[in-house]
Protein backbone atom coordinates (compact mmCIF):
# COMPACT_ATOMS: atom_id res chain seq x y z
CA UNK A 1 0.00 0.00 0.00
CA UNK A 2 1.32 3.42 -0.95
CA UNK A 3 1.96 5.89 1.92
CA UNK A 4 -0.56 8.37 0.55
CA UNK A 5 -3.28 5.77 0.02
CA UNK A 6 -6.50 6.50 1.95
CA UNK A 7 -8.50 3.49 3.17
CA UNK A 8 -12.07 3.90 4.39
CA UNK A 9 -13.32 2.44 7.67
CA UNK A 10 -15.47 -0.01 5.72
CA UNK A 11 -12.50 -1.21 3.69
CA UNK A 12 -10.42 -1.60 6.84
CA UNK A 13 -13.20 -3.69 8.39
CA UNK A 14 -13.37 -5.87 5.28
CA UNK A 15 -9.60 -6.35 5.31
CA UNK A 16 -9.65 -7.24 9.01
CA UNK A 17 -12.48 -9.75 8.53
CA UNK A 18 -10.85 -11.43 5.55
CA UNK A 19 -7.38 -11.57 7.07
CA UNK A 20 -8.76 -13.18 10.23
CA UNK A 21 -10.59 -15.76 8.12
CA UNK A 22 -7.67 -16.46 5.80
CA UNK A 23 -5.21 -17.11 8.62
CA UNK A 24 -7.34 -19.86 10.15
CA UNK A 25 -6.42 -23.54 10.08
CA UNK A 26 -6.77 -25.59 6.90
CA UNK A 27 -10.02 -27.34 8.00
CA UNK A 28 -11.58 -23.94 8.75
CA UNK A 29 -10.41 -22.58 5.39
CA UNK A 30 -12.19 -25.47 3.71
CA UNK A 31 -15.38 -24.52 5.54
CA UNK A 32 -14.94 -20.89 4.46
CA UNK A 33 -14.36 -21.90 0.85
CA UNK A 34 -17.43 -24.14 0.86
CA UNK A 35 -19.54 -21.33 2.33
CA UNK A 36 -18.18 -18.85 -0.21
CA UNK A 37 -18.97 -21.09 -3.19
CA UNK A 38 -22.48 -21.80 -1.91
CA UNK A 39 -23.24 -18.14 -1.26
CA UNK A 40 -21.65 -16.93 -4.48
CA UNK A 41 -23.95 -19.34 -6.32
CA UNK A 42 -26.92 -17.89 -4.42
CA UNK A 43 -25.86 -14.32 -5.28
CA UNK A 44 -25.61 -15.20 -8.97
CA UNK A 45 -28.99 -16.92 -8.89
CA UNK A 46 -30.65 -13.98 -7.11
CA UNK A 47 -29.11 -11.52 -9.57
CA UNK A 48 -31.11 -13.12 -12.44
CA UNK A 49 -27.95 -12.97 -14.59
CA UNK A 50 -26.05 -15.74 -16.28
CA UNK A 51 -22.41 -16.28 -15.34
CA UNK A 52 -21.03 -14.18 -18.18
CA UNK A 53 -23.29 -11.26 -17.32
CA UNK A 54 -22.51 -11.57 -13.63
CA UNK A 55 -18.76 -11.68 -14.23
CA UNK A 56 -18.97 -8.53 -16.31
CA UNK A 57 -21.16 -6.79 -13.70
CA UNK A 58 -18.63 -7.36 -10.91
CA UNK A 59 -15.54 -6.80 -13.08
CA UNK A 60 -14.27 -10.40 -13.29
CA UNK A 61 -13.13 -12.56 -16.15
CA UNK A 62 -15.58 -15.35 -17.02
CA UNK A 63 -12.80 -17.88 -16.49
CA UNK A 64 -12.03 -16.49 -13.02
CA UNK A 65 -15.67 -16.83 -11.99
CA UNK A 66 -15.80 -20.40 -13.30
CA UNK A 67 -12.67 -21.27 -11.34
CA UNK A 68 -14.13 -19.80 -8.12
CA UNK A 69 -17.22 -21.99 -8.49
CA UNK A 70 -15.39 -25.14 -9.56
CA UNK A 71 -15.67 -28.14 -7.21
CA UNK A 72 -11.95 -28.76 -7.75
CA UNK A 73 -10.97 -25.27 -6.61
CA UNK A 74 -8.96 -25.26 -3.38
CA UNK A 75 -7.98 -21.59 -3.24
CA UNK A 76 -9.80 -18.81 -1.47
CA UNK A 77 -10.68 -15.77 -3.60
CA UNK A 78 -8.49 -12.68 -3.55
CA UNK A 79 -9.50 -9.81 -1.30
CA UNK A 80 -10.10 -7.58 -4.31
CA UNK A 81 -12.46 -10.19 -5.78
CA UNK A 82 -14.47 -10.50 -2.57
CA UNK A 83 -14.89 -6.76 -2.15
CA UNK A 84 -15.86 -6.34 -5.81
CA UNK A 85 -18.63 -8.96 -5.48
CA UNK A 86 -19.81 -7.56 -2.14
CA UNK A 87 -19.98 -3.96 -3.35
CA UNK A 88 -21.58 -4.78 -6.69
CA UNK A 89 -24.28 -7.03 -5.20
CA UNK A 90 -24.86 -5.16 -1.90
CA UNK A 91 -23.94 -8.04 0.40
CA UNK A 92 -21.44 -8.09 3.23
CA UNK A 93 -18.00 -9.64 2.86
CA UNK A 94 -18.37 -11.58 6.10
CA UNK A 95 -21.61 -13.10 4.80
CA UNK A 96 -19.92 -14.15 1.56
CA UNK A 97 -17.32 -16.18 3.47
CA UNK A 98 -19.73 -17.58 6.05
CA UNK A 99 -18.98 -15.36 9.04
CA UNK A 100 -22.46 -13.80 9.10
CA UNK A 101 -25.92 -15.23 8.63
CA UNK A 102 -27.53 -12.40 6.68
CA UNK A 103 -26.19 -10.98 3.44
CA UNK A 104 -27.42 -7.47 2.70
CA UNK A 105 -26.92 -5.89 6.14
CA UNK A 106 -25.15 -6.58 9.42
CA UNK A 107 -27.43 -4.24 11.35
CA UNK A 108 -30.88 -2.84 10.70
CA UNK A 109 -33.07 -0.37 12.56
CA UNK A 110 -36.76 -1.18 12.70
CA UNK A 111 -39.14 1.51 13.90
CA UNK A 112 -42.27 0.44 15.73
CA UNK A 113 -45.26 0.88 13.44
CA UNK A 114 -48.99 0.73 13.88
CA UNK A 115 -50.95 -1.83 11.90
CA UNK A 116 -54.54 -0.81 11.18
CA UNK A 117 -55.64 -4.26 10.09
CA UNK A 118 -57.98 -5.94 12.51
CA UNK A 119 -56.27 -8.61 14.66
CA UNK A 120 -53.00 -7.98 12.83
CA UNK A 121 -49.61 -7.94 14.51
CA UNK A 122 -47.69 -4.67 14.59
CA UNK A 123 -44.88 -4.52 12.01
CA UNK A 124 -42.07 -5.30 14.46
CA UNK A 125 -44.06 -8.01 16.20
CA UNK A 126 -44.49 -9.82 12.88
CA UNK A 127 -40.72 -9.91 12.53
CA UNK A 128 -40.21 -11.13 16.10
CA UNK A 129 -42.71 -13.97 15.72
CA UNK A 130 -41.22 -14.89 12.35
CA UNK A 131 -37.72 -15.00 13.86
CA UNK A 132 -38.94 -17.22 16.69
CA UNK A 133 -40.28 -19.68 14.13
CA UNK A 134 -37.03 -19.58 12.16
CA UNK A 135 -35.09 -20.31 15.35
CA UNK A 136 -36.95 -23.51 16.25
CA UNK A 137 -34.38 -25.92 17.65
CA UNK A 138 -32.11 -23.12 18.84
CA UNK A 139 -32.02 -21.56 22.29
CA UNK A 140 -33.77 -18.22 22.63
CA UNK A 141 -32.22 -15.80 25.12
CA UNK A 142 -34.36 -12.91 26.31
CA UNK A 143 -33.92 -9.85 28.52
CA UNK A 144 -37.23 -7.94 28.65
CA UNK A 145 -37.55 -4.20 29.13
CA UNK A 146 -39.98 -4.77 32.03
CA UNK A 147 -41.66 -8.14 32.60
CA UNK A 148 -41.41 -10.95 30.03
CA UNK A 149 -44.04 -10.27 27.36
CA UNK A 150 -45.22 -13.87 27.18
CA UNK A 151 -45.97 -13.83 30.93
CA UNK A 152 -47.95 -10.57 31.00
CA UNK A 153 -51.66 -10.32 31.71
CA UNK A 154 -53.91 -8.25 29.47
CA UNK A 155 -54.30 -5.68 32.25
CA UNK A 156 -50.54 -5.11 32.47
CA UNK A 157 -50.19 -4.87 28.69
CA UNK A 158 -52.96 -2.29 28.49
CA UNK A 159 -51.39 -0.33 31.36
CA UNK A 160 -47.99 -0.28 29.65
CA UNK A 161 -49.36 0.73 26.24
CA UNK A 162 -51.44 3.56 27.70
CA UNK A 163 -52.13 6.23 25.10
CA UNK A 164 -49.26 5.34 22.77
CA UNK A 165 -50.34 5.56 19.14
CA UNK A 166 -47.64 3.36 17.61
CA UNK A 167 -49.31 0.11 18.63
CA UNK A 168 -52.62 -0.98 20.12
CA UNK A 169 -53.11 -3.07 23.27
CA UNK A 170 -54.91 -5.69 21.18
CA UNK A 171 -51.86 -6.14 18.94
CA UNK A 172 -49.53 -6.50 21.92
CA UNK A 173 -51.92 -8.97 23.57
CA UNK A 174 -51.95 -11.03 20.36
CA UNK A 175 -48.16 -10.92 20.23
CA UNK A 176 -47.84 -12.04 23.86
CA UNK A 177 -50.25 -14.90 23.17
CA UNK A 178 -48.25 -15.92 20.08
CA UNK A 179 -45.01 -15.94 22.07
CA UNK A 180 -46.62 -18.03 24.79
CA UNK A 181 -47.98 -20.48 22.23
CA UNK A 182 -44.52 -20.74 20.66
CA UNK A 183 -42.98 -21.46 24.07
CA UNK A 184 -45.46 -24.30 24.61
CA UNK A 185 -44.46 -25.89 21.32
CA UNK A 186 -42.04 -28.79 20.81
CA UNK A 187 -38.28 -28.26 20.57
CA UNK A 188 -38.54 -24.96 22.45
CA UNK A 189 -35.60 -23.82 24.57
CA UNK A 190 -36.18 -20.41 26.16
CA UNK A 191 -34.06 -18.58 28.74
CA UNK A 192 -35.05 -15.26 30.28
CA UNK A 193 -33.21 -12.89 32.63
CA UNK A 194 -34.50 -10.05 34.82
CA UNK A 195 -33.02 -8.19 37.73
CA UNK A 196 -34.51 -9.24 41.04
CA UNK A 197 -35.09 -5.55 41.80
CA UNK A 198 -37.39 -5.16 38.75
CA UNK A 199 -39.73 -7.82 40.18
CA UNK A 200 -39.58 -6.34 43.66
CA UNK A 201 -40.46 -2.89 42.30
CA UNK A 202 -43.43 -4.37 40.45
CA UNK A 203 -44.74 -6.08 43.60
CA UNK A 204 -44.47 -2.85 45.60
CA UNK A 205 -46.04 -0.75 42.87
CA UNK A 206 -42.95 1.42 42.63
CA UNK A 207 -41.55 3.41 39.70
CA UNK A 208 -43.48 2.93 36.47
CA UNK A 209 -45.93 0.65 38.26
CA UNK A 210 -47.08 3.28 40.77
CA UNK A 211 -50.45 3.78 39.03
CA UNK A 212 -51.20 0.13 38.35
CA UNK A 213 -53.95 -1.13 40.64
CA UNK A 214 -52.98 -3.49 43.43
CA UNK A 215 -55.41 -6.14 42.20
CA UNK A 216 -53.75 -6.07 38.75
CA UNK A 217 -50.31 -6.51 40.30
CA UNK A 218 -51.47 -9.46 42.41
CA UNK A 219 -53.17 -11.04 39.39
CA UNK A 220 -49.99 -10.58 37.34
CA UNK A 221 -47.91 -12.30 40.02
CA UNK A 222 -50.40 -15.17 40.18
CA UNK A 223 -50.24 -15.46 36.38
CA UNK A 224 -46.44 -15.62 36.40
CA UNK A 225 -46.40 -18.20 39.20
CA UNK A 226 -48.77 -20.41 37.21
CA UNK A 227 -46.90 -20.12 33.90
CA UNK A 228 -43.41 -20.51 35.40
CA UNK A 229 -44.57 -23.73 37.06
CA UNK A 230 -46.24 -24.97 33.89
CA UNK A 231 -43.50 -24.12 31.41
CA UNK A 232 -40.40 -25.15 33.36
CA UNK A 233 -37.94 -26.44 32.17
CA UNK A 234 -38.82 -25.27 28.63
CA UNK A 235 -38.88 -21.73 30.00
CA UNK A 236 -36.10 -20.98 32.45
CA UNK A 237 -36.32 -17.60 34.16
CA UNK A 238 -33.20 -16.37 35.97
CA UNK A 239 -33.12 -13.40 38.32
CA UNK A 240 -29.83 -11.53 38.80
CA UNK A 241 -28.82 -8.78 41.23
CA UNK A 242 -29.13 -5.45 39.43
CA UNK A 243 -26.52 -3.97 41.75
CA UNK A 244 -23.90 -6.34 40.33
CA UNK A 245 -24.96 -6.60 36.70
CA UNK A 246 -26.81 -4.63 34.05
CA UNK A 247 -28.49 -5.82 30.86
CA UNK A 248 -30.17 -3.95 28.02
CA UNK A 249 -33.41 -5.40 26.61
CA UNK A 250 -32.52 -7.93 23.94
CA UNK A 251 -33.74 -11.11 22.28
CA UNK A 252 -31.11 -13.46 20.85
CA UNK A 253 -32.48 -15.94 18.30
CA UNK A 254 -29.93 -18.73 18.57
CA UNK A 255 -26.94 -17.99 16.30
CA UNK A 256 -29.12 -16.25 13.70
CA UNK A 257 -29.65 -12.70 14.98
CA UNK A 258 -30.10 -10.48 18.00
CA UNK A 259 -32.69 -7.71 18.39
CA UNK A 260 -31.83 -4.93 20.85
CA UNK A 261 -34.87 -2.99 22.03
CA UNK A 262 -34.22 0.76 21.98
CA UNK A 263 -37.74 1.96 22.82
CA UNK A 264 -40.24 1.88 19.92
CA UNK A 265 -37.31 0.71 17.81
CA UNK A 266 -35.16 -2.41 17.41
CA UNK A 267 -31.52 -2.64 16.38
CA UNK A 268 -31.21 -5.99 14.62
CA UNK A 269 -27.74 -7.53 14.44
CA UNK A 270 -26.90 -10.47 12.19
CA UNK A 271 -23.11 -10.46 12.32
CA UNK A 272 -21.93 -13.76 13.80
CA UNK A 273 -19.43 -12.03 16.07
CA UNK A 274 -22.03 -9.56 17.37
CA UNK A 275 -24.48 -12.37 18.15
CA UNK A 276 -21.77 -14.40 19.88
CA UNK A 277 -20.71 -11.41 21.99
CA UNK A 278 -24.26 -10.74 23.15
CA UNK A 279 -24.71 -14.45 23.86
CA UNK A 280 -21.64 -14.44 26.10
CA UNK A 281 -22.96 -11.39 27.98
CA UNK A 282 -26.32 -13.09 28.47
CA UNK A 283 -24.69 -16.27 29.73
CA UNK A 284 -22.77 -14.15 32.24
CA UNK A 285 -26.12 -12.94 33.61
CA UNK A 286 -27.12 -16.55 34.14
CA UNK A 287 -23.89 -17.36 35.96
CA UNK A 288 -24.57 -14.43 38.30
CA UNK A 289 -28.23 -15.29 38.95
CA UNK A 290 -29.29 -15.12 42.60
CA UNK A 291 -32.61 -16.87 41.96
CA UNK A 292 -32.56 -20.00 39.79
CA UNK A 293 -35.52 -21.06 37.60
CA UNK A 294 -36.87 -23.79 39.94
CA UNK A 295 -36.98 -21.23 42.76
CA UNK A 296 -38.70 -18.43 40.83
CA UNK A 297 -42.31 -19.50 41.69
CA UNK A 298 -41.47 -19.45 45.41
CA UNK A 299 -39.87 -16.02 45.06
CA UNK A 300 -42.93 -14.73 43.20
CA UNK A 301 -45.19 -16.05 45.97
CA UNK A 302 -43.16 -14.01 48.45
CA UNK A 303 -43.60 -10.95 46.26
CA UNK A 304 -47.33 -11.64 46.06
CA UNK A 305 -47.57 -11.40 49.84
CA UNK A 306 -45.77 -8.04 49.66
CA UNK A 307 -48.07 -6.83 46.88
CA UNK A 308 -51.14 -7.71 48.91
CA UNK A 309 -49.87 -5.55 51.76
CA UNK A 310 -49.33 -2.55 49.54
CA UNK A 311 -51.97 0.06 48.89
CA UNK A 312 -52.79 1.05 45.33
TrEMBL record:
Location of the HTH cro/C1-type domain: 48-96
Gene3D superfamilies: lambda repressor-like DNA-binding domains
Record SMART domains: HTH_XRE
Molecular function GO terms recorded: DNA binding
Protein name: Unannotated protein
Natural source organism: freshwater metagenome
Amino acid sequence: MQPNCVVSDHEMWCLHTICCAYTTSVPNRKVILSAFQERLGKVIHDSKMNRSQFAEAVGLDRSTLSQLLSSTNRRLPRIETLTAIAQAQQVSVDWLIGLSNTGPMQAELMNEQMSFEREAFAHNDEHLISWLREAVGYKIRYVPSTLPDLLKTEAVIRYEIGDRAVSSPEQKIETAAARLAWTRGPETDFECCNSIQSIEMFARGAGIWSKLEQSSRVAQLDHMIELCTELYPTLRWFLFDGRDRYASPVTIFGPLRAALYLGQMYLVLTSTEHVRTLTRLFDDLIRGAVVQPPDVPAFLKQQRVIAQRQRS
